[in-house]
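Two proteins were folded this term; both appear here.
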Amino acid sequence: MSNQTSMIILVWISLLLSACQTQTVPSQVTQQVVSTPATSSTQISDIWRRNLVRWLHVAYSENAQEASFAGITSSKIDHPTLYATYSIVGVYHSLNEPIESASEIADWIVSLQTEDGAFNDPDPLSKYPALLETNWAVATLARLKVQAPQRGKVMAFLRSLQNQDGFFEPDQDIGGNPQAQKLVATFWVIDTLKHLNVDLTKEFYLESTKEALLTYLDSADTNSPSQKDSFSSEFFIAVHTLALLDPHSVPSKLKTLIQEQANTFSLSNNPAAIAIGIDLLNSVNILQLPISDTQRATLRRMVETELYPSIIQEPRKSGRPVEPMLTLLFFQLGRTLDVGYETSGELLKLLKEYRVAGGWSNFLIPQGDPEATAYALFIAREVGYEDYNPQKVGNFLRKFTQPAIAVKNIRDTRFALRGLAYLNQLPNSTAMQELQDNLTDSILAAPKKQSAGLLLEYALLVYEQGWQWPHKLEALTLQILQQNADSKFPRMDLLHQIAILEKVSNTEVVPKKQIAQEIMQLQVPNSGFKSVPNASGADALASLLAVEALRALDIAPLVNRSDIESFVKECKRDYGYDYCYHASPNAGVKNSTFGATYSALRLLHLTK
């Protein structure tokens, strides 16, 4: 069978082109209360520590060689997504398993309905067509035995997407050729109406849809021997949609073809093949077509012995997470074959890791990076989190300390070395000297417009690692400091870099008092520091940079510890800290990040 238009993309995992990443989280969340390490100087409650442990756990990814942490916001794991919730409720439904707090899930989904009757998940990761999200919402509510609200408005929204040719159009481009998009959208509409318990025979506007599907299917040369083995996924979704709409309208020759295909169909763990199998077998069941006992047994054995075990085994072997929609595909296929899943408890245990108030959070995480990994390692030390592989994390970070790579991004190198320091895996002195020499030469060879930025970033690296400032850079250092001596530089990050540069190079061109005065002008009274004068409020990173700069200038007593502690307290949330741009603890950014959490915890250390 041809896979011209992948069903896994166009239907079940529509638009999730990057869904199956090569990253994963460990198989079990650390549930026990971990002890506070001796290095921690902060009072951390057990509940807050458990939240941070869960955050670190989900952000952690590991494969056979490397491991790292991704810079995800806490909202990624603290809020449900319609994508994940639809998928996992579907799995529970396929297993006939009860769902805890089902009414809470239903209430959250109902809250997503918009004025026009459609549903929209506001999560930034959920940028799917309203038609698809409406299908997910209505189907999930039906599985929870809850009637979708404003049923008439939902139906009106669906009908608004119909073309003059009878097909329906998605409300945004979903990829693929125009015909494929119309077929997929038409399937979503009919499937949604089915879940709304609509009597499709009484909806007059669907007559043109039926005719459009029949015309499309009739255009396929079903009598051609060569064609019988090359039907596209579009063909099978068209058959499935017509069977859902009106099984009595399916021509007998098409029924015969579907029966033949079902009796010769071979399954594999390819998602597209599974999706085609679902359409094919669902059509067989709706049309009440017999398939041989031998074929049904073969397909069932494939699901039981290969497909189902791979849901749990493959993530552990390849480093991929349990993917919600793909997992649903497996179970929907098994349901059509009457497969019994006697050992589903282990999978349900994995799925519970992502359960949050209102549903399930997204399972997928972005690629790890040196900055997020360094921040996460510091936070892990604070809360006693040890459920990661230090050697594999070290393998990941060491890539960014190789001279050939380091010269391309000094910032990544700086965070990689910081993370390796937390792991006690810093390169030996010979390797460090080679790295330093290569970075020095690359700065000197850089174009004039780039040299200043590279030098300032390099100064931060030298400061953190305690290296000696290279004599080769003295002339460039003096030049850069002189350029800033008579100019105003109210940005906190630049003030911080100038202070560090003067410290490591033992050169004072911009007077210390001048830098300190500029820094103090950015302080919010009785609070933290702003990043720039016109910022709406203090933020955690700017405050950390201010304290670090003043310490480098040996003027740290200017900072009042109680002010910093008060500011940090304002930024604290259920998961870590916000950057907290506003003075009010109830305002500002609502998504905690590793960077903000690191900055806040580090601030408490530096001002103790």
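Next, the second protein.
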Amino acid sequence: MHANPCGRPRCRTLTAVILSLLLVAVAPIAFPCLTGCNIGSNSRNGNKGGGTAGPPAVTGPTQPAIIIDTPVPGSWHTAPDALVQGHTTAVAGDVVSVTVNGQPAIMEADGRFAGPIAMTEGMNHISVRAENRAGDRFFSHCSYMYSGSYGDPAAVVPDAAIVRLNAQALPFLIDMLNRDFLATIDLAPIVMGLNPIFATSFLFGVVTVQIDVTDLQSQGLTAGMDLVQDGVAIHAEMDQVVIDLVAQDQGGFTIPFNVGGQITADKIIIDTVARLTIQPDGTVTSALDPNSVTLQGFGITLNGVPQFVVDLVKNTVRDLVQDKLVDALNQQIPAFLDQELNSLMGPSTVTLNAVDLTYQIVPSTIAIDSTGLEVGLGVRLDAPLAPGVTAPPGYMATPGSPPVLTTNKAIAATIDDDLINMAMTVAWQSGLIQFELDDSMLAGGGFGGISSLEFGALGAQLFPELDGHIDPTTPMILRLSAGLPPYVRLGGAGFVDMQIGELYLEVLVDQNGVLEPIVGLTVHADVAVDVTIDSATNVLTIAIPQRPTFLFDVRDQPMTALDPLRLQTLLTLALDAMLPSLMTNAQLQIPAFFGIELINLDFAVEGPAADHLTIGADVQLAPPAPPAPAPTPSTP
């Protein structure tokens, strides 16, 4: 589950209002926070856009800044506690109190402070607040991650997903097999590759005959399947079989001959059991138990060959054809099953947004009985590090074991939250998800009254210090980046909780093609997401059940010294004003796959440690697509 309750166009506009400031659909990218968290500083970072002359800096109200030196913002932590250390830029002796996460800190006369904190699994926010002798209050926030353990990014997540197909799903699996394989199976080349199907001598070598197959045709192959212990029983039938033959004399004492003929059968009946085995390298192999092939209504003709010769070879040829078909099936069916079962295994690479994402799926368990088929899958994801990103120690991992999957649904699957967090860490470290918002993305709509990112439409309200210094028609651009990946926790305040720390939002103006930064904001967010499904309409609903938690800091302000308390108030008020739109439910129609529609879906957080997302569904054939409308005749 992703904590994004809206479609892409809406989220882009939603993020526009993060300036106003609405931030819920965060798309973290890999530009880590490398400097200390601070607020109220008057630092000037110059022209980040690569231009030369930017708008003049504007002075404004200043406040002392709080600098958190350790832990480094955006860092990863492994111990259950930490000592927060930092300093203020206030005049020595002016600060009268400092608290760290609400607890008094030890203060030094030179403005340095230290305070211990206890950490929890997942994202941890540090909030430092100070007060000077005049009663002014100032603050700073930063985030870092802690976990009792990090998963090895180079290793496969064991039992990352378990999938179960129950007996109710078998008819649909059979339909797919018939459509994808059995209906197109071609035994003729294999049977012909086993020629001759018959070669022997009669009457003390007077008659020597070799019979070869030249073609095999039928009305098609249909199959039924049943689950048995450790395997799948297959019953297949091929109707109206015609096998073309050529019979040749091989040098007896008779007149040489070379004649054609046919084998006919009303029906070929095939019965076998496919056994599946996981090999040490993680591949799945199949093998057929001794199987039987029966030809019903068998007949043979050889043009111009005396009937007594045909009668002599008839039963022998029938047995040999059955044996050859058994050999052919032993080659075709296991090869097909092996290919299908291993087609998703890896490692394989897909390219998304110019990033090569490598995935590997390794079966770990397979169990088959009369109630269903269940496969456990290990998964590994990897992608190159984006420039400037330090490799993380791993993904957030929590101990836990999978639940027992239900047998009252046609399909059931459970996903370990470790896999979700691995995916988010890989996306973060590779810069796979990037976000930049400009005025063109608001075309045709807007959100919460914001329809333009021109400075005069929004920026002048948020940055009155710059009013008169920037042309109101100047376009603004928002860039969003993250120093840490999102962390998902199942079954918290919502069905899914997403913790987001060290987001960096940069607001820039386009000055004649040169991007000049106005301000850089650090945003910390915790979002709870509920997921429900309407089984009658097959519609998935995503909702935010309670007010998200947001913390804002000013980190960089190269154009002006902003009043951070005023900005914090403005952003909080803007967020409160936008909450009705933010908390509106987003809905998604569950699509059909491969002509099969999932119905009666349900979701649950399960497992002894409540760390698995379980999905159950029944299946039905999707209704056929309506025919395309006939083209309208063109007017001469």
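Helices lie at 8-16, 170-180, 188-193, 307-342, 417-430, 455-462, 564-582. Confidence is low (pLDDT under 50) at residues 1-61. These notes refer to the second protein only.
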